[in-house]
Design brief:
The complex is a heterodimer. By secondary structure, chain A is mostly helical. Helix content of chain A is 71%, strand content 2%. In chain A, helix 7 runs parallel beside helix 9 (239-259). The radius of gyration of chain A is 26 Å and the shape is globular. By secondary structure, chain B is α/β, with parallel strands linked by helices. Classes of the chains: A mainly alpha, B alpha/beta.
Amino acid sequence: MGARLPSMLKDAGLTAFVAAALGIFIVGFRTVDVGRGLTFDYHLVDLAVAVVTIFFGRLGLSLAANGLRWPAMALGAAMIAAGVSPLQLPSGFLHWFVALGGVLLVIRGAWPWANDAMAAAAKSPSGVVLGQAGAKWSGWLLLAAAVAMPFTPFADQKTMDLGVLILTYVMLGWGLNIVVGLAGLLDLGYVAFYAVGAYSYALLSTQHGLGFWTVLPLAGMMAALFGVVLGFPVLRLRGDYLAIVTLGFGEIIRLVILNWFDLTNGPAGIGSIPGPTLFGAVFAETPPAGKQTVSDMLGIPFDGNHRLIFLYYIILVLALITNLFTQRMRRLPVGRAWEALREDETACRALGINPTNTKLTAFAVGAMFAGFAGSFFAAKQRFISPESFVFIESAIILAIVVLGGMGSQIGVVLAAVLLIGLPEWFRDLGSYRMLAFGLAMVLIMVFRPRGLVAHREPSLRLHPVKPGGSG
Amino acid sequence: MAEPSILSVKGVETFYGAIQALHGVDLDVAKGEIVALIGANGAGKSTLLMTICGNPRARAGAIRLDGEDITALPTHEIVRRGVAQVPEGRRIFPRMSVLENLQMGATLAEPAHFTHDLERVFAMFPRLAERRDQRGGTLSGGEQQMLAIGRALMSRPRLLLLDEPSLGLAPLIVRQIFEVIGRIAREEGVTIFLVEQNAYHALRLADRGYVLANGRVRLSGGGRELLANAEVRAAYLEGGHG
């Protein structure tokens, strides 16, 4: 192994050089406005620390890749120590950077052992049983945790808000999963249907005085209709071409909302949207004319959190409906046809499946759930504007589906928690938040290239088959 | 031909853009027959089979199924009328299990028949029964071909169209597949129209055969008769398959 050391050092040196060359412009100096004009503010020490870290990080990775796990982990440990030491580095972020790099190195060094141990555990008889039980019960455990969440001591307003946000994305992910994961139609404009649902509720409630529960099915139908409208022109398109057209559709909807001032109030958005009611009672401290407040109806003291808890359970139920519906559809002919269509359209035709209807139902059903989620979003925010429905939303929802493992329901939940939760928890990192987010995405794709949950459970079995046997 | 024809193709012309692939093809398949269509690469064999299925559409001529004109129908409507297809390259669903693949084949069938039909297919292909929970994509080539045939049978077709069932398979497996095709015709009473490059096996099995060359029917006759034909031997058999 010693013979390889010079080439490893050379490689690490080259990486550090590239980092320095790139970093000198990004990190090295910055222009500052001093009143009379711009001057340079130099951050060369920052750059030096980063380059040294990158040098050792790269060296550690090469060591680990060449089977020298202990030196790699030692190097990682040293970096962690340097990161958390009281050593005066120019910025707090550099401490993070050095320490996180060390953590990654240690993980990389220990990875082969962890992998071997996991593989061995999965193969052992008890591991197989445990794995099956885990797959069976993990969903229920997650559900129980989600139901109990508002009653746990750490359910403060911030956590509940985050919970509602994550569940909204779980629902959107499950909805898009029908289109992308099951039917295999790459849709980059999913947020358009979310916008249709949101504006349906916002307009019908503020202008026609309809309540949330009346509008909810209407918004779903409206979005489904738009799904069919989008579906027709793209029926003959596949893959990249389909993605481009759906991307365009998403933008068209946003631009129409932005510019149709008379209807949507344009960029100013729509405000004072009423929230959802509980059997006609509203969540407020003092009742508006002719209405009753929930706290009066139930005879409990008013608490601002009640509204949030109520919203939390609405979105939880809506998301669960989406999930149950999808699970059920997978066992019905139309759901099976979605999956078959993803696999091979020509073969589907040969089996007498009408691809037109199959694709349109997938678009319509997927859009319908986005519509539900959209009207929930409008009712929760009480204010919507076109800014909430930009392309990055579509991209995030798609990322949730893809990172979760296309077609996997539980994978969507995990990916939503990661992708929505992480950026919130990383808020302390300030402007480096998106960097950490990107890093998390890269790591998922490196270690789980087919998504967090890549396993696909068949929708049909004759009778239980013993593992390893041919039944 | 004592039996009435189940499939009749009259003067069919098919184009890919400006290029004409079929130049007025006529052929007939009678009820209960095995008919083989042989020819060289690019003769238009697969094009004819696909034209019968409505994709691409014939620009001229008529295709009749039991007397009904199906020339202008979309594929899924043709399939609905009792035509099952084993497409070229098998085209099984790779991420779905064997059982799910067969279930997809039964899309148009009575749900009540499912269990019975499944047992029938499993009896014909015991390998598929052994591998029913395995993903289609992990099967061997021969098993995939069996699955494609089994999937087509799940719809209880009157007419089974096979496109190059021997493609890319070992000689031993080819023999097995042809044996099963013969059994499907004899035991199940399914009419079979088969497109093959493997002229020897196809003509030995078939009641009648057609030879297609450059988009035209060159020869036709009984299977054994064609097999003995000097022209056929020279063009498609010598130095070829044994």
